[in-house]
Amino acid sequence: MVNETxxxxxxxxxxxxxxxxxxxxGYGEEYADFIDLTxxxxxxxxxxxxxxxxxxxxxxxxxxxxxxxxxxxxxNKGVDYFVETIYPRIKDIDTNIIVNVSGSTxxxxxxxxxKVNALENVPAIxxxxxxxxxxxxxxxxGVTTTGIEQVVSAVRKVYDKHLIVKLSPNVTSIADLAxxxxxxxxxxxSLINTLxxxxxxxxxRRPKLSTVTGGLSGACVKPIALRMVWQVAKAxxxxxxxxxxxxSATDAIEFLLAGASAIxxxxxxxxxxxxxxxxxxxxxxxxERHGFKNVSDLTGALEINS
Amino acid sequence: MKKITDFRLIEKKExxxxxxxxxxxxEPLEEIKAGQFVQVRVDDAQHTYLRRPIxxxxxxxxxxxxxxxxxxxxxxxxxxxxxxxxxxxxIIYPLGxxxxxxxxxxNAILVGGGIGIAPLYYxxxxxxxxxxxxxxxxxxxxxxxxxxxxxxxxxxxVYITTNDGSLGEEGFVTQHSIxxxxxxxxxxxCGPKPMMMALTKMARENNIDCEVSLENLMACGLGACLCCVxxxxxxxxxxxxxxxxxxxxxxxx
Lengths: 306, 253
Fold this sequence. Notes:
The complex is a heterodimer. By secondary structure, chain A is of the alpha/beta class.
């Protein structure tokens, strides 16, 4: 029997390292026909802001080779709606329900974090300081160490459970930002959010997205994400959650070997809504095949000079 | 309940721009409403990544088959249309809300343009089961766009327009003489957006209830990614979940 448990510290224990990436899995309910949600390490629910947001105009999506661009722009009904309507529906699912907290001002982030802090069955938040699709939205904080320090230390004061900070890849040195998050009180970091990209319809001479630019995700971003996870894991002492293009158990294992303690699966859920449980099973089989007793032993087990 | 499963191609018909695929499942079918759609996985295509949403054209529970009409528009749809007999397609279904089937008898017209005719066939059959005689008004650019006509004729009366006049009346569906000859109290439509917009305008002017089936660009098909939204009087709604069928009372166009 392989032990799949992952301890991320500060009250966050996962049954297995597989979680779902925010914005790709709704509130979990959308996938309940396809998989047993209790087989997941955690569900990162859709980005939640203080107030209702309509998001960006259509078109918000463009398919790209081995990936897609999105410019949804954090459409959600606001934290109060989440607390009153959605939370009661999902709070008893036997997995970690983690709220992705988004905002455009420090006060907004803190207000949402405080409200979510009061929810008994939400053991953690993922602070989204890296959404590329909202003006002054998050990414402004997420691309400088000063911005990260300001928002993370402010949220830290009002939120006393497990605080994950989700990092943007649209920076010069992601390890520096991870260090800033760690120094400001983050319990773990997750990376990467989407890469800023663009698509053009040459025939119409128009951008494919209403916002012109958007966030790139899917299999095509994996090598970049993997490199960044490796760099961050070497730099920080807190656990690293890896994501970016993971579409198979092998992909997930590569992230763990590079130093991630857990992983999130995002865009791949659109192609195979059962991919999460397949990846979890594949990781166990890998451990059996290679003689690892604990999935957590894979973290950072990359052998570079051998 | 939504399901992900493989369907085997057991019959295929091809036209210049579109293909008829009769697909069989090993398992009993889930309950499917007219107007619902499937998400088909496209494997080994260089420039595609996501599934392709395709309307369900027909359902046969006894033989565990669904029928899709696939228009060749790009790499993804070409790959699906190229599926060979006995090959399988991985399908997520049934998705979306479907058309409203009225309880009482209505004078309903089902207006399809191009490949948008696909979901209207199964809708016509469902209406007929309810004792409502469906009337189809099908439009295309020319004769070759109009496929499966005999099947439609076996379900209800069929009226046709083509832009070049090669079949039926010349012009757009909104210009067909049937609108002057008959009074309708329900329009169901699926097709190119300009056509559906013209019908929406006509329905409003004549006080006819109308449902349109939208085909916004889609990623997940499950209401999770919020990419395929249509702006309505209720704000942005997911076409894949709250649609694809939307009553014109909710539309902003």
